[in-house]
Amino acid sequence: MSVSLPIAVDAMGGDFAPEPEVFGAIEAVDAGIGPVVLFGAEARVESVLGARGISRSAPGLEVVNADSVVTMDDHPAEVLRNKRDSSLALAFDSARAGRSGGVVSAGNSGAMMAFAVRTLGRLPGVDRPAIACPYPTKKGVAVLCDAGANTECRPLQLAQFGVMGAAYARLILGAKRPRVAVLSNGSEGVKGTALTREASEMLQGARTDAFDFAGYVEGRDVVEGEIDVVVTDGFTGNVTLKVIEGVGMAVTEILKGEVKKRTFAKAGALLMKPALLSMKARFDYAQYGGAPLVGVDGVAIVCHGGSPARAIRNAIRVARGFVNQKVGDEIVRVLRETGLGR
User: Fold this and answer.
1) Which residues of 195-217 are buried (b: 16+ CB within 10 A; e: fewer)?
2) Strands 102-105 and 141-145, bridge-based pairing
3) Residues 214, 264: contact at Cβ < 8 Å?
4) pLDDT in the model for residue 2
5) Among 176-190, 195-209, 259-273, which range has the highest average pLDDT?
6) Mean pLDDT, all residues of the chain
7) Mean pLDDT confidence for 182-197
8) Which end of the chain offers a freer environment for a tag, N or C, measured as fewer CB atoms within 10 Å?
């Protein structure tokens, strides 16, 4: 894919669409990330652009009308049949036709997965695409794969998640030689299930310089920062991420409550404010933009439904990185090298 190709943004997918999508696209263009094409209700998109004094023909921006919208309540299978004229469908059509380099959407993640697989197809050797979700750790950022696309998995699929997550961690997040581990209920090799044990054996037997396999990782250790890629099925992965998010929010609220109770604590909080703001920023999903759908033959970034403009801008940045770094080609190469392709 050419670097000059625009990134396609589903302007109607998010909870507050189209404002965050349009403003995020403007920010991406202004930041020099590259051109963007917005797919959505033409009149609404143009109205948001007009509020910023921007024309639909402004340099780096393009607007393509879509007659329908995929809602959060739509079932993926029904969307594939009945909403081929939706903003999400047209965005993927543009990517398949080579008119855009990738797709960004804050809409229905199940529908996005369905359109991505149906429209773009899978990379050679990939059994099932997965959601690779970045999350904060004590030492930086790690990746959990799968974060919800596949609730029931086979061992080969988990092993492939490790390969795909490692490519993302290395080429986009900057981990020089990612450490990959399988999520389990203990660090000993005899722990886990038949699924995790067999997947671990596959990854242990992989001969590659693309990543190091570190065996099992327990739930309490996923935020330590010693592991760059945590491999699990989509059900467990989704629950794990929400627990991490919930604990982070709870700790913040508890801390606020304790500070309000004590006069001296209030004074201390003022001194700690820069550190607290820094911690808050690390837990802000908007800085990561979104979670890439790895394993499809193209680029697709799944954003949080409530994504603000900054998250959309950063998702466009991540999509551009996937295009420029040719992450898909690297996944195919490592699958072949390790013999983990299907």
Assistant:
1) bbbbbbebbeebebebbebbbbb
2) unpaired
3) no
4) 43
5) 195-209
6) 91
7) 90
8) C
Average pLDDT over residues 295-324: 96
State how far Cα 208 lies from the chain centre. Answer: 25
- List the structure tokens of 151: 């609730």
Q: Are strands 291-294 and 300-302 parallel, antiparallel or unpaired?
A: antiparallel
Structural domain includes residue 167: yes
- Residue 39, strand partner residues: 10, 64
What is the extent of the structural domain holding 48? 1-126+295-327
pTM of the model: 0.90
Distance between CA atoms of 186 and 265, rounded to whole angstroms? 38
Nearest Cα to 114, choosing from 147, 92, 136, 143?
Answer: 92
| Strand (E) or helix (H) holding 30 | helix 19-30
Q: What percent of the chain has pLDDT over 90?
A: 79
Q: What is the pLDDT of residues 96-109, one digit of tens each?
A: 999 999 999 999 99
Task: Identify the CA nearest to 199 among candidates 242, 240, 165.
Answer: 165
145 with 168, same domain? yes
Say if residue 138 is in the same domain as residue 99.
no
User: What total number of domains does the chain contain?
Assistant: 2
CATH number at residue 80: 3.40.718.10
**Hunting for tokens 């604990």 — which residue is that?**
247
Contact 6, 101 (CB under 8 A): yes
Q: Token pair for residue 203?
A: 């990854």
Average pLDDT, integer, range 69-82: 92
Are 155 and 195 contacting, i.e. CB atoms less than 8 angstroms apart?
A: yes
Is residue 277 very low, low, confident or very high in pLDDT (cuts 50, 70, 90)? low
Sheet holding 300-302: strands in order across?
Answer: 61-65, 36-40, 7-10, 102-105, 300-302, 291-294, 130-136, 141-145, 229-231, 179-184, 212-218
Contact 230, 143 (CB under 8 A): yes
Give the dihedral sign, CA 239/160/319/98. negative
